[in-house]
Design goal:
Radius of gyration of chain B: 17 Å
CATH architecture of chain A: Orthogonal Bundle
Shape of chain B: elongated
Largest sheet of chain A: none
CATH topology of chain B: Alpha-Beta Plaits
Distance between the termini of chain B: 9 Å
Number of helices of chain B: 2
Number of helices of chain A: 14
Largest sheet of chain B: 4 strands, antiparallel
Oligomer: heterodimer
Helix content of chain A: 55-70%
Distance between the termini of chain A: 62 Å
Structural class of chain A: mainly alpha
Order of helices and strands of chain B: EHEEEEHE
Largest interface: A-B, 16 and 9 residues
Number of domains of chain A: 1
Structural class of chain B: alpha+beta
CATH class of chain B: Alpha Beta
CATH topology of chain A: Ammonium transporter fold
Strand content of chain B: 35-45%
């Protein structure tokens, strides 16, 4: 049998070789006539076809990457953030907080399709988009060269949607364990329209007055959403925490996280999903995406270390919650910087963010005694702010010549004025989120009310807001 | 008849149970409980917030025995549950008036 097999193989090989030889073209077959108009036309046609094929190949590669990134960013909200926050609350509120993230996945998606995308990326006004793409009119497989020249605008649209989902979801960390579900839904709807959409347009939309790439007055470098996502959500979270007031029993009654295992898994999913968030913000599968990918990973690692070290020095132990909180703080801080900095500055930014956010959630919060239940402000507001400012310091043109070839980008290039521009962007985002959120809270308070009754709060939101319990272990 | 209630460290429970089986104790009831005596609790720190946990997990073991087995059982528990550190727990003895086996309504020591 063995011998027969070998014989068969040999036969196939011989036949194959013979076929190959037969296909070889004769050495001097083409160019039968003299060069003429016709041949040059054929050549230019061929070149054009080749160009189209190259463009199509690039588009396929970029599109494949961007679709994966869109899915990764969705994974950050569900299950990533849902698990991270879910583990940090008490057992009686875990479904409520997870449900808030999940509800946003559905709610924002529908709002986005109706008018949200158009309000963020339509037109070229300085403050907000327009209704030209309402109901996604005109959004198809053709790219929009203003934003991403190599991928279908539908891909760009769905990718940006995932950012619009996670941003309001971050705020639920501050309102956890005491906000009504009805109030949350109304608040998030209004917040999406009146805070997120204008802010996204101002920073990323064409003509937006903070846009660094498309002609903004105060070009703020924000690669993947330090101002748009983290400062707006973090600062809004602070306003919500102050407006809602403390949870019943805070800070006297112990409210330890009910499952750090869930939080741990959630944080790890966030770390992985963040590659889609930051590296995907290159909007192509190119070197810039790699720069952002590397910076993201390094920032997270350095911050996990520096938070743990701070804790070790202060409390004598490095906790699991500290390590994962540090990683998230680093990911937040590196978000605006990811596509502008090299690996070493990424380590520095992460290291600083870990220490700074540790101080914010342990000391600053205690001094001012506000109940930001899951530290949405301490991590996202504080980390986003420090990251946006440090981006102005560390951004280099060799990674991203966003102001044009040969022009400096940030402080390390000698362009220290960029730190000033970053400050304008940061202050504006703070102010906008503060005022916008306060007004929205007033409205929601009048319409549906914000807090559940004390009785319901003590019983837990799972049973009172949703009529179910997370763990029926004995049934 | 006597009831022995022993509140012991969870970490010693398996050894105590095995030792009791070895001296021929055939039944016991076990509950996971929380409590404290003179042992202080411990502190946990979550993002800078310290919590003192003063009720610690313990195991409560209940056995009802004819009088002649009591002292040997108590000795066995003392020997196996002891770590020598604070928090090892306590043993309580009390007299039992009656025991009834539900299956056949047998009464007294025979029901044990």
């Amino acid at each position: 049998m063995k011998r027969l097999g070998v014989a068969c193989c040999l036969l196939t090989l011989t036949l194959g070789a013979a076929q190959l030889l037969a296909q070889q073209p004769p050495a001097s077959a083409p160019a039968s006539a003299t060069p003429s108009m016709e041949t040059s036309k054929t050549v230019s046609d061929k070149l054009q076809q080749l160009d189209q094929k190259v463009a199509a190949a690039q588009s396929s590669a970029d599109n494949a990457w961007m679709l994966v990134c869109a899915a990764l960013v969705l994974m950050m909200t569900g299950p990533g953030l849902a698990l991270f926050y879910g583990g940090l609350v008490r057992q009686k509120n875990v479904l409520a907080i997870m449900m808030q993230s999940f509800a946003l996945m559905a709610l924002i998606t529908v709002l986005w399709a109706l008018v949200g995308y158009s309000l963020c990326f339509g037109g070229s006004g300085p403050f907000i988009g327009n209704f030209q793409h309402a109901l996604l009119r005109g959004i198809g497989v053709d790219p929009n060269p203003d934003y991403a020249a190599t991928i279908p605008q539908l891909t760009f649209m769905i990718y940006q949607l995932m950012f619009a989902i996670i941003t309001p979801a971050l705020i639920t960390g501050a309102t956890a364990e005491r906000m009504k579900f009805s109030g949350t839904v109304l608040f998030m709807t209004l917040w999406f329209f009146f805070v997120y959409a204008p802010m996204a347009h101002m920073v990323w939309g064409k003509g937006g007055f903070l846009n660094a790439a498309l002609g903004g007055r105060f070009p703020t470098l924000d690669f993947a959403g330090g101002t748009v996502v983290h400062i707006t959500s973090g600062v809004s979270a602070l306003v919500c925490a102050l407006y809602l007031g403390k949870r019943v029993g805070f800070p006297k009654q112990p409210m330890p996280p009910h499952s750090l295992v869930l939080s741990f898994i959630g944080a790890c999913l966030l770390w992985v999903g963040w590659f889609g968030f930051n590296a995907g913000s290159a909007l192509a599968s190119n070197g810039l995406a790699t720069t952002a990918f590397v910076a993201t990973h390094f920032g997270a690692a350095a911050a996990a270390l520096s938070w743990s070290l701070s804790e070790w020095i202060k409390n004598g132990r490095a906790s699991a919650l500290g390590a994962i909180s540090g990683a998230v703080a680093g990911l937040v801080a590196i978000t605006p910087a990811a596509g502008f900095v090299g690996p070493m500055p990424a380590l520095v930014i992460g290291f600083i963010a870990g220490i700074f956010c540790f101080w914010m959630v342990t000391r600053f919060k205690a001094i001012f005694s506000y109940d930001d239940a899951l530290d949405a402000f301490g991590v996202h507001g504080a980390g986003g702010t420090i990251g946006a400012l440090l981006t102005g310091v560390f951004a280099r043109a060799i990674y991203n010549p966003i102001f044009g070839a040969g022009k400096p980008t940030g402080g390390l290039d000698g362009h220290w004025g960029q730190v000033g521009n970053q400050l304008v962007g940061v202050l504006f985002a703070w102010l906008f989120a503060l005022v916008g959120t306060f007004v929205i809270l007033k409205i929601v308070d009048a319409v549906t009310g914000l807090r559940v009754s004390e009785e319901h709060e003590i019983a837990g939101l799972d049973i009172t807001q949703h009529g179910e319990e997370a763990y029926n272990l004995e049934s | 008849m006597m009831k022995i209630e022993a509140i012991i460290q969870p970490s010693r429970f398996e050894s105590v149970k095995d030792a009791l089986l070895e001296i021929g104790i055939e039944g016991m009831t076990v509950t996971e409980v929380r409590g404290h005596g003179r042992q202080k609790g411990h502190t946990e720190v979550y993002r800078g917030r310290e919590y003192t946990v003063d009720l610690l997990p313990k195991i409560k073991l209940e056995v009802v025995l004819p009088d002649n087995l009591v002292s040997r059982t108590v000795e066995t528990i003392l020997k196996t549950a002891k770590t020598g550190k604070i928090g090892d727990g306590k043993i309580f003895l009390s007299r039992i008036e009656e025991a009834i086996r539900i299956r056949n309504e047998e009464r007294g020591e025979g029901a044990l």
